[in-house]
């Protein structure tokens, strides 16, 4: 099954024919945003502004972290709402379908960033790990986490590119470079249909 | 690391222990101090286009400048992405944290 992506005239991104395993990754996003009981992930999502000023960091925590919490929760709520269609369609023979309205795109990018940050912090992935494909075949949780990092990274990269398109289609902004860390060499490459977004 | 001893989030105003209407001396002293740097730190998990996009959104930088700063973060581990008044620096750091970039504040050394 080859996933298909189309951009509707109103800017909604429509992903169709999503394989079950890919749908499963997307459906996990809200729960993977949860950093509770994982101090490393908590520290990553709710950082301090200084390295060594405990008093200032404590004040920042008191003043700023509640707002960060609400921002993460707001993005999660949007993603949860958009995933309802995929939850209903994921087992259809034609594959799952996900619609992301244009004004939800930033929430999805943010939610995926949260998930990737939580996974990276929880499993302590460093730059070397990110280049090490052998981790994907390791037994245990690290391989699954790395797979999710890569798959969701591809989705995030795609959404970033889409968010920089002119309304109604057009050329991508030049923000993406040849040095982009993500690539599209995975099992979930999308075929494009629709106007001018291929 | 540069001096952060006088730092307090500007949004907090006077300290919680101060009497209402009393502005502590430290508030004035800090506002007249040297400017603050907003620093973005490298994170191997975060995609380069995401960093570029975030710098554009938060600071309004042109693509070329945002990409140059992003590459500085990537190759040197950190980049000073903005320097200026403390309150604005705090706001920027908050926005970078909201985007889940690793960012800190440092006061410019005299």
Polypeptide structure, described:
The complex is a heterodimer of chains A (198) and B (110). With 198 residues, chain A is of the alpha+beta class. Chain A has one domain. Chain A is built from seven helices and four strands; from the N terminus they run ββααααβαααβ. Chain A has a four-stranded mixed sheet with strand order 3-2-1-4. In chain A, helix 3 packs antiparallel against helix 5 and helix 5 (105-123) packs antiparallel against helix 7 (141-163). The longest helix of chain A has 36 residues, at 54-89. Chain B has a single domain (10-107), classed as Ribosomal protein L7/L12, C-terminal domain/Adaptor protein ClpS (Ribosomal Protein L30, Chain: A, 2-Layer Sandwich). Chain B is 42% helix and 17% strand. Chain B is globular, with a radius of gyration of 16 Å. The two termini of chain B are 13 Å apart. Chain A binds chain B through residues 44-53, 56, 59-60, 63-64, 67-68, 71, 109-110, 113-114, 116-117, 119-120, 125-127, 129-130, 149, 153, 156-157, 160-161, 163-164, 173-177, 179-182, and chain B through 1, 4-5, 7-9, 11-12, 43-50, 52-53, 56, 63, 66-67, 71, 74, 90, 93-94, 97-100, 102-106.
User: Could you say which overall geometry of chain A the principal axes of the C-alpha atoms support?
Assistant: globular
**What is the average per-residue confidence, as pLDDT of chain A, rounded to a whole number?**
85
Q: Name the poorly predicted regions of chain B.
A: 1-6, 12-29
Taken in chain order, the helices and strands of chain A follow as EEHHHHEHHHE
Instruction: Return Rg of chain A in Å.
Output: 18 Å
Largest interface: A-B, 48 and 36 residues
Can you give the mean pLDDT of chain B?
Answer: 82
Which class do the helix and strand fractions of chain B yield? alpha+beta
Helical percentage of chain B: 40-55%
Largest sheet of chain A: 4 strands, mixed
* Largest β sheet strand count, sense and barrel closure of chain B: 3 strands, antiparallel
